[in-house]
Amino acid sequence: MTVDYVAMHMSDGIVNAPISVLFGIIAVVALGICAWRAREELDERTVPLAGLVAAFIFAVQMVNFPILPGVSGHLLGGALAAILVGPFTGALCVAIVLIVQAFLFADGGVTALGANITNMSVFGVAAGYASALLLYRLARRGRDDVAVPVVGGIAFVSAVIGTVCAAMGFVLEYSLGGAATTSLGAVAGYMFGTHVLIGVGEGIITALTVMAVVRARPDLVYLLRTNRVRTAVPA
Amino acid sequence: MTGPTRRSWWFWIGFALVTLVVAGGVSYLASSSPDGLDSATLQGCEVVETADGEELRGDCIAQHARDHALAGSPLADYALGGRDGTGGLAGVLGVVVTVVVAGGAFWSIARSRAKPKSTVRD
Fold this sequence. Notes:
Chain B: Its main location: membrane. Chain A is mostly helical.
């Protein structure tokens, strides 16, 4: 019988204890800030979407897709969550998925949870959302509306950037407290290369999902609400 | 705002159904190759099948990985009690747990908001 690879996130022991503790603290502080700021994003209309987005990310993360012979990738979900429900709520969505996976499915180490949350829910969401917001503002210049495929393109690019930045988070932790002798350059190069490819898959899933929600319920999409708020609230 | 229209109900039902089908069905099509991170940690090692399972030969990061603290838990590795072929059921359970945990957390965050309904952001 072969043991399939079902683990998707960093295991315990890859990064040493002090660095695990450091990133545990970073994750707790970041999630606290997110819970505080998410109050501005969440209302009775967006709570159900945020809950479903978290469950959707959990589900899609189970579906590893091949990127190279013998290497797969899966959705991280940072840009997807941030575009649909806002960056702070989005970071909480990804973090909740990682917590459920670590404690219920023994996927992603318990001591590595802080590093995993920092990478995917903080770095991934922050980079993905910043890219999406920048591109959306550029696309909106001189226009009232942005076409759905353009929003899809924005989602694609920001998902690629978010994925690569999350992967670089692992490189950062490895450089600070990696428990092995593999050279940092080799790890960085390999992580970058594979996560550009994973980012393409992430980008396709993110673009298709965001376009589907934009078509069905544009009023719920956080990124599209950013400009309406600015024009609707003059004070 | 008026009450929910039929169209909006279809959106929620559709989103939930897609999520359940992905976790419960499409997940069986998932590649079982190590993901980008796992394969980065396996660089320098060869995975050898032995009587006791898989063994790592060589020098790589993954050799420093410890077994998961909860590796013996009932849903470990997305299977019910370690049984083959139960990944879809485990996935559906995970979806339900995630939606309850996330929904509960987001509902309490939304409720904790003292000021009246507003969409002010930075």
